[in-house]
Q: What sequence folds into this?
């Protein structure tokens, strides 16, 4: 949650710090399981203690972030297999280590600078587009933060950034390294290739019943019915809240009257102007105009070109000088003004053709205005409504009761981890889907879950989603009859892939035996294609990005193949030419990336040594309780 609050405050250094912390302590290791500490103590580093409740909250937030990125939930065993708990603990220990060193070095940040840092964070901007203290307070409160706690955390983050910035910079890359990088990045290859697609499943004959049953028995686990959970979901977003807000006709009329230009086409005029160097010349020209001289004649007399006098066909808002705009839009067609005191000197205005403006009637735009007002008020009311719902939840109210009270809707789903129903179709979408599914499959029936926070976009507020698990249907083995359609589909897919692999192997054997690539492709009825100038890490016309690595793994003249199109098709290729670049100008972007990586390595060594000096102790029992390796902690 803290990361989402200050997401705009963290620049490159903060992101680099987090990346370093993930790997640094994994390299050095975390040791010393300890006993005799309080049940709420998870770890210590130096004199700093990390509590179990604090880490539990950080861990849930991290799982939600990862689930949102990969578009599916992360189970506890998957998270442990990926090392997420130890990575997160390493980050937290790293932060504590840097905090300790910053204190010893007496690094400091004044209250004024810290206040400026917070006030410049767009996450705390209100509807006015500037820092809004009331909104800031409501946002902290809705996320369980006091202002003092957040300010303390922000101060520590700023000091860590100061410390990290002092370590990097000034690294020069050796010439042999830059030359090697240049050759690796700029090597080019040319290939001839064909694409082979699998036989469509409909063209593959069905197997015998016995063969299909045997296929099912050998892979029964693949057709297992997954765990399903019945989930109640209550979403609170500006769109949802807006539907509960009544807007009066008087409010709609007021907005319409005050913003009529928004609901139509503004009047446009062809405007010309002559700017005079002084008032005397302007008055002399005005006198001639009053005596009957045409405006065009004054233009010729002063040897001005159309570019000098034409403002074009413009609206009032498009004229920069307000005095000129007021004069231009008060004259009749073909009218000429007197002397006007403009921003750049005395001016005389002439108006040509006038294109009248038009305004849509109120009845045509009333719905649009009402919707906009509802959304504006909904965004202002969102945090208050969140607090009310949280209070009701704390009082024991069910989601259905809360929904009835506030005119909201509870959505009930019976789904697996991927959000699919029993018939394999995707359940209806809802806000925060990925995070809700992730959380719902790591909690229990009747457990009270923290709401999922939805990130906002631009100046629009995000929202919150509450969920409860109503029932759990454990996974089970499907019978052959239940899974028959899926078994048949899987069998045909396997047969199609076997046939494709055999065909690719046969073509490779023929080419490696001396037949030309072009001849083999033609006899196989395949379209021969070629690609030139292929480079590592860059898209190439015709060659999928995932196949480029295989092209660079093969030697000149070699035959290779690689799966493409999600593994269903195969790319068969022959490397026709390899071109190595001459020493020359280096890629500044690539060299910067290498320099950044070397700086990361330097900072990693620093963090490893810092942790070693301070000493780390971990309560593995408490950690297992939090991440699902043992009984759930209370």
A:
């Amino acid at each position: 949650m803290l990361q989402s609050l200050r997401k705009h405050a963290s620049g490159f250094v903060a992101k680099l710090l987090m990346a370093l912390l993930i790997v640094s302590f994994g390299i050095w290791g975390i040791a010393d399981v300890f006993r005799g500490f309080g049940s709420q103590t998870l770890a210590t580093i130096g004199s700093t203690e990390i509590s179990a409740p604090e880490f539990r909250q950080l861990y849930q937030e991290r799982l939600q972030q990862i689930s949102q990125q990969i578009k599916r939930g992360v189970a506890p065993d998957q998270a442990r297999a990926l090392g997420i708990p130890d990575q997160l603990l390493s980050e937290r220990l790293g932060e504590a280590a840097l905090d300790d060193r910053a204190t010893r070095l007496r690094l400091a940040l004044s209250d004024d600078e810290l206040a400026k840092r917070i006030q410049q964070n767009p996450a705390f901007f209100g509807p006015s587009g500037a820092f809004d203290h009331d909104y800031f307070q409501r946002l902290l409160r809705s996320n369980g933060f006091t202002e003092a706690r957040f300010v303390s955390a922000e101060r520590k983050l700023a000091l860590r950034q100061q410390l990290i910035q002092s370590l990097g910079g000034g690294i020069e890359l050796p010439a042999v390294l830059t030359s090697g990088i240049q050759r690796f990045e700029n090597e080019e290859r040319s290939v001839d290739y064909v694409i082979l697609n699998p036989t469509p499943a409909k063209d593959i004959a069905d197997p015998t019943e016995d063969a299909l049953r045997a296929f099912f028995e050998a892979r029964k686990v693949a057709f297992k019915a997954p765990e399903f959970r019945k989930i109640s979901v209550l979403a609170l977003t500006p769109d949802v809240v807006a539907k509960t807000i009544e807007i009066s006709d008087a409010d709609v009329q007021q907005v319409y009257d005050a913003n009529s230009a928004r609901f139509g086409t503004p009047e446009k005029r062809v405007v010309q102007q002559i700017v005079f160097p002084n008032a005397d010349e302007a008055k002399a020209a005005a006198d001639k105009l009053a005596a009957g001289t045409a405006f065009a004649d004054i233009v010729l007399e002063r040897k001005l070109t159309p570019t000098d006098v034409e403002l074009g066909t413009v609206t009032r808002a498009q004229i920069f000088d307000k005095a000129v705009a007021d004069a231009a839009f008060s004259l009749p067609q073909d009218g000429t003004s007197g002397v006007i005191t403009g921003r750049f000197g005395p001016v005389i205005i002439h108006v040509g053709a006038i294109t009248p403006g038009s305004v849509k009637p109120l009845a045509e735009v009333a719905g649009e205005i009402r919707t906009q007002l509802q959304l504006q008020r909904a965004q202002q009311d969102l945090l208050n409504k969140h607090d009310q719902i949280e209070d009701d939840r704390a009082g024991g109210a069910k989601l259905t009761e809360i929904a009835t009270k506030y005119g909201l809707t509870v959505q009930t789903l019976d789904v697996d981890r991927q959000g699919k129903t029993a018939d394999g179709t995707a359940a209806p979408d809802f806000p925060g889907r990925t995070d809700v599914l992730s959380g719902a499959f790591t909690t229990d029936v009747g457990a009270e879950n923290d709401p999922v926070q939805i990130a906002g976009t631009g100046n629009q507020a995000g929202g919150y989603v509450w969920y409860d698990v109503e029932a759990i249907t454990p996974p089970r083995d499907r019978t052959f009859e239940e899974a028959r359609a899926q078994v048949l589909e899987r069998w045909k897919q396997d047969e199609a892939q076997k046939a494709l692999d055999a065909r690719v192997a046969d073509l490779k054997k023929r080419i490696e035996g001396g037949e030309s690539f072009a001849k083999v492709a033609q006899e196989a009825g395949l379209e021969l294609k070629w690609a030139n100038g292929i480079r590592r890490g860059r898209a190439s016309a015709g060659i999928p990005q995932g196949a480029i690595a295989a092209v660079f793994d093969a030697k000149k003249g070699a035959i290779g193949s690689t799966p493409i199109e999600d593994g269903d098709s195969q790319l068969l290729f022959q490397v026709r030419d390899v071109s190595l670049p001459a020493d020359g100008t280096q890629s500044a972007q690539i060299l910067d990336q290498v320099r950044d990586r070397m700086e990361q390595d330097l900072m990693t060594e620093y963090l490893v040594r810092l942790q070693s000096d301070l000493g780390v102790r971990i309560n593995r029992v408490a950690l297992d309780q939090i991440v699902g390796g043992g009984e759930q902690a209370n």
User: Anything to note?
Assistant: The longest helix spans residues 362-394. Residues 1-36, 630-634 have pLDDT under 50 and may be disordered. DSSP finds 24 helices and 17 strands in the chain.
